Amino acid sequence: MVLDRASDIVTAATTSNDALLSKLSALRAGYLVDPALRAIHTKPSLPRKDPMINRGTWFRFTYIEQMAVAFAAKYNGNCAIVNIGAGLDTLYWRLQLTAQQEKKEGKQSYFHVKHWIEIDLPSITELKAKKFDLTHGEIINMPVSEDTTIRPFQDPQVILYRPKQEHTETVPEALRVELPGYRLYAANLEMRKTWMPMVRDIVANDKGDATLPVLFLSEVCLSYLDADTTIGIIKDLPTYFNSFGIVCFEMVNPSDSFGEMMQINMAERQVVMPSFVELGFTAQYRKIFQLNGYEDSYAREAGDVYRSFWPARRREIEQLELFDEFEQWNLIMGHYACIMGWSGVTNLEEMLNSIGQDTESPDAPDK
């Protein structure tokens, strides 16, 4: 069976809830429009967080979202997106709600992909299936390799959840949207010799070649994994996929005073962050990508990326809640990073730099 360690359960539950509350606060303050997110939060009121947290949440959310949108557009939907450590993320629901509206309006270009796959621990996926009205979990037995170097990293079972064909009228409309190609798997990310071949088989063509472009997303997931697992995921992706990229938003700079405070605060909540502590430096991530044969990589602190990200939209966002604690803001944004590696697909750095450029006015330069 797919089992969670006690530390995995605490970390996954805590961080998933943290992300949910941060996004709900940003939703309340007008940073996000997300009917599915509001639908799964059954309490009448929304949480309120500091404006700096709201602004940072907008950037984190929008960076991941727009990279997924740009990747799908680049390949005209003939691609797959895999969200690892997806938690209670609503991104695919949000994108499909928008696409559904655009199709009704007769637009020819709208978001679509062949496969959207999410992976997380059983304790999280079971909760997500209930909140999002997915099917009951189906246990799938995976073949176990005879290779003794692989078996320790393999779990013979995963649990699959799919969208329901029909929903009752009590299910909110935002959760009844069609989800083509969607699969939610309960699997421990440490067992990469199980879930990577599984994903490869889903995206492979009739000849068994995994040539379909695949984009992996990690929204502060790798930071909480064992360092060996994070390195192993980066190392093994080129083994299973020919054309792929990985887009991450992760914690960095653990060794300064602010980074040490982050560790203490999370430890008090019984949350462990091994990869943040051992690998959490932009140069270290670039080195790992380089050592494992990636065509190219990118790793910059979030504050640096934010300052040039989607200027027109960023200026609008900055007017929602004004603050002048810029030293604290820079500290926070200096302890997260946008990290990407890719092989056989379009240059992801160029894709990031192009976000929002088609909406920019040449008469309104960024200040």
Automatic annotation (TrEMBL):
Q: What is this protein called?
A: Leucine carboxyl methyltransferase 1
Quick one: which residues bind S-adenosyl-L-methionine?
A: R60, G85, N188, L189, E219
Q: Which family does it belong to?
A: Belongs to the methyltransferase superfamily. LCMT family.
Q: Does the keyword Methyltransferase apply?
A: yes
Q: What is its EC number?
A: 2.1.1.233
Record field: catalytic activity: [phosphatase 2A protein]-C-terminal L-leucine + S-adenosyl-L-methionine = [phosphatase 2A protein]-C-terminal L-leucine methyl ester + S-adenosyl-L-homocysteine
Q: Does the keyword Ribonucleoprotein apply?
A: no
What domain of life? Eukaryota
The GO terms describing molecular function are: protein C-terminal leucine carboxyl O-methyltransferase activity
At the highest ranks, the source species' classification is:
Eukaryota, Metamonada, Diplomonadida, Hexamitidae, Giardiinae
Q: PANTHER family under this entry?
A: LEUCINE CARBOXYL METHYLTRANSFERASE, LEUCINE CARBOXYL METHYLTRANSFERASE 1
UniProt cross-references to SUPFAM superfamilies, sorted A to Z: S-adenosyl-L-methionine-dependent methyltransferases
- Which keywords accompany this UniProt record? Methyltransferase, S-adenosyl-L-methionine, Transferase
- Give a Pfam family name: LCM
Enzyme class, one word?
transferase
What is the stated purpose of this protein? Methylates the carboxyl group of the C-terminal leucine residue of protein phosphatase 2A catalytic subunits to form alpha-leucine ester residues.
Q: Organism source for this protein?
A: Giardia duodenalis assemblage B
Q: What's one GO BP annotation on this UniProt entry?
A: methylation
